[in-house]
Amino acid sequence: RNLLDRDTFSKSDPICVLYTQAIGNKEWREFGRTEVIDNTLNPDFVRKFIMDYFFEERENLRFDFYDVDSKSPNLSKHDFLGQMFCTLGEIVGSQGSRLEKPIVGIPGKKCGTVIVTAEELGCCRDSVLMQFCANKLDKKDFFGKSDPFLVFHRSNEDGSFTICHKTEVVKNTLNPVWQAFKISVRALCNGDYDRTIKVEVYDWDRDGSHDFIGEFTTSYRELSRGQSQFNVYEVINPKKKGKKKKYVNSGTVTLLSFLIETEVSFLDYIKGGTQINFTVAIDFTASNGNPSQPTSLHYMNPYQLNAYGMALRAVGEIIQDYDSDKMFPALGFGARLPPDGRVSHEFALNGNPQNPYCHGIDGVMEAYYRSLKSVQLYGPTNFAPVINHVARYAASVKDGSQYFVLLIITDGVISDMAQTKESIVNASKLPMSIIIVGVGPAEFDAMEELDGDVVRISSRGRFAERDIVQFVPFRDYVDRSGNHVLSMARLAKDVLAEIPEQFLSYMRVRGIKPSPAPPPYTPPIHVLQTQI
């Protein structure tokens, strides 16, 4: 909207060029170009850019605008109209996944604005729930009847088949009814409704040498007709068919039901306005070492971030795109506070217990450095108070409009294991996730236990409803060559990768559906007339 006019006799002929940035070397690479729209300062570009989206990665984007003056593909031959920088997360995290930002880059001139919208390509987000039964299958066992099961294969581009589902075995019957099963459309036919699906029927044998009863083929489109005469299949054994003239079939398989379920995605909720609230808690215990000493994990090095600062920035810079007000509560634990030296396990880094919010990740960093100067590192290392602090907020909004992520950065050895487990088991019922980054050389066995990936965490006989803790040791990401940018991108990727699934598991268990996205932007009518 309102691009600069660079042509003398008519309006500009704009094109938009999109660049993406490599994580490691920060080099901008051209991703693609839109079409040129002649003679307008308010172009609505049609050509879309299709790119991969990962919640846990920061994808920097740059949109450059040019007024095209000739047929030359060389951009330096055309007039530069300005540019806009943003991240992919910023676009999808905006309301309705629609971002409007000013175009910059030409000093002293207003360059107009750009409106970018993102939509998730949902071609293959459906799953199907199907149930089959069979009649009069061939008897394969000498003593009893057969023990039949079905094996489903999808066909590949090259004509080969890939197994995609096995039913359970139904014992001792020639007329089995199998349990309904759920499979994604992508797994069943790669999203291609007319692709062949091959189904084989076997008789189960204990020694693994299952006997082949017969097979049939179908497709998603055929199955989607549901229970009908079209979905009764003859099971054919090609060997028998070749040998016996009178062979009819080896039984029939019937589709009993076919239900399509559209899986909602993380982005459906974000688009519908769910906010992710980010809270950070920092370990101020004495085991970190005196902050004025270079050996301290809290050392305030004027030239580079310490481990706490790096972990905070790596995770925070990605999450902040999903939080509209960019205000983050920042807490500390394990320190003695001025003026009276009382020990606190949940104090506000900005010194204001009534309002612990800091503006943006920069605000959190500033409050962290200020705290280091004013509090005395002490102990013990108690996690439960900060977990309960966030849980109190999460417990007050269980309608799916908000989700809470707590980042705990710690040097390790935890003093209140029993209370922390209890807090996590309670929090697993709430819309929250906990990320723990362990800094320094300590043994982090206790943290691995809290992570719950291997054994689900429990407290006093109660198990966590869902896995909500993700732990990583910072030392696994320290790059020997000193390239912190790449190593921190890997750290963020590993701690954030589980969040969308944890988020969805909460919404699913609670039966919360995404809110409808706000209506898409429609340009004002008079703008359209200039283009006709």
UniProtKB/TrEMBL annotation:
Residues 1-101, 110-233 form the C2 domain. One of its GO terms (biological process) is cellular response to calcium ion. It comes from the Eukaryota. Keywords: Calcium, Metal-binding, Repeat. The gene is Cpne8. Residues 277-478 form the VWFA domain. This is CPNE8 protein. PANTHER family: COPINE (PTHR10857), COPINE-8 (PTHR10857:SF133). One of its GO terms (cellular component) is plasma membrane. PROSITE patterns: C2, VWFA. Transmembrane segments: none annotated. GO terms for molecular function: calcium-dependent phospholipid binding; metal ion binding. InterPro entries: C2_dom (IPR000008), C2_domain_sf (IPR035892), C2B_Copine (IPR037768), Copine (IPR045052), Copine_C (IPR010734), VWF_A (IPR002035), vWFA_dom_sf (IPR036465). It holds the Pfam family Copine. Belongs to the copine family. Signal peptide: none annotated.
